[in-house]
């Protein structure tokens, strides 16, 4: 385990298949490379809750990186220059928001935020989000108010575009909803992201927070 190693995400130009979920990621996929498994999609790499901040605003980038427990640099191969070039950073949404708030006097930062939020909204299928949120509420009646909405939006962004309607429908089954809730708890309520940022393997990190996740899951499911 290496300490504090910056995680690298590559925008691949070759047809890529995720070494874990087996999904065909197309020929412009965002992947990480693992010695043992080859390419991994961001979802399997547990980085898909991060948002992309394109390079260009040094102050915002520096602040967002500092405020984000987990971040990854995004690299793309430049044929012309024959080297990997930095495209930007993946950071936690709330870190980006806080960084933007620090830069808020800057009107360009405000405009970028407006565009980013509009883009996100247009990618969301609101009906699907509502159905997903309702499923969460049914299965986890003690889930804190509003959290089901955040989890549902994330799941919806994940399934929109890259998979078809069947997969989206399948994503509403109990096991899939449970997995989405578990992923949220790991990122939001444990030090899982910190462990990943320190270079822990995902399975080690998951094992380290498993009891904590189980306890919260149980509360959301059963306690009154
Ligand atoms: Zn995958």
Keywords:
alpha+beta; 224 residues; single chain; two-stranded antiparallel ribbon; six-stranded mixed β-sheet; binds zinc ion; 9 helices
Helix content: 40-55%
Shape: globular
- Give the helix/strand class: alpha+beta
Using the CA coordinates, give the radius of gyration: 18 Å
Unreliable runs: 161-165
What is the H/E order? EEEEEEHEEHHHHHHHH
Strand content: 15-25%
How many strand elements?
Answer: 8
Mind explaining what this structure looks like?
The chain has helices spanning 58-67, 93-102, 107-123, 126-139, 147-159, 165-170, 174-189, 192-197, 202-222; strands at residues 7-12, 16-17, 24-26, 29-34, 38-41, 50-54, 72-78, 83-92. With 224 residues, it is an alpha+beta fold. The longest helix has 21 residues, at 202-222. The model is unreliable at 161-165 (pLDDT under 50). Bound molecules: zinc ion. Zinc ion (ZN) binds next to strand 5.
Summarize the structure.
The chain has nine helices and eight strands.
């Amino acid at each position: 385990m290496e300490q504090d190693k910056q995680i690298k995400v590559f925008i691949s130009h070759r047809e890529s298949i995720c070494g874990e979920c087996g999904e065909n990621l197309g020929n412009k996929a965002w992947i990480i490379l693992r010695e043992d498994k080859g390419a991994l999609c961001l979802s399997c790499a547990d980085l898909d809750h991060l948002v992309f901040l394109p390079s260009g605003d040094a102050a915002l980038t520096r602040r967002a990186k500092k405020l984000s427990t987990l971040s990854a640099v995004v690299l793309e191969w430049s044929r012309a220059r024959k080297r990997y070039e930095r495209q930007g950073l993946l950071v936690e949404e709330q870190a980006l928001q806080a960084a933007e708030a620090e830069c808020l006097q800057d009107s360009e930062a405000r405009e970028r935020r407006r565009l980013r939020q509009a883009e996100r909204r247009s990618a969301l299928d609101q009906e699907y989000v509502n159905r997903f949120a309702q499923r969460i509420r049914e299965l986890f009646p003690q889930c804190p108010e509003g959290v089901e909405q955040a989890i549902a939006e994330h799941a919806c962004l994940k399934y929109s575009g890259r998979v078809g309607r069947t997969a989206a429908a399948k994503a509403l089954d109990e096991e899939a909803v449970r997995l989405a809730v578990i992923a949220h708890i790991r990122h939001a309520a444990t030090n899982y992201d910190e462990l990943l940022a320190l270079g822990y393997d995902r399975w080690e990190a998951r094992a380290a927070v498993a009891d904590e996740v189980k306890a919260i899951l149980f509360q959301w499911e059963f306690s009154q």
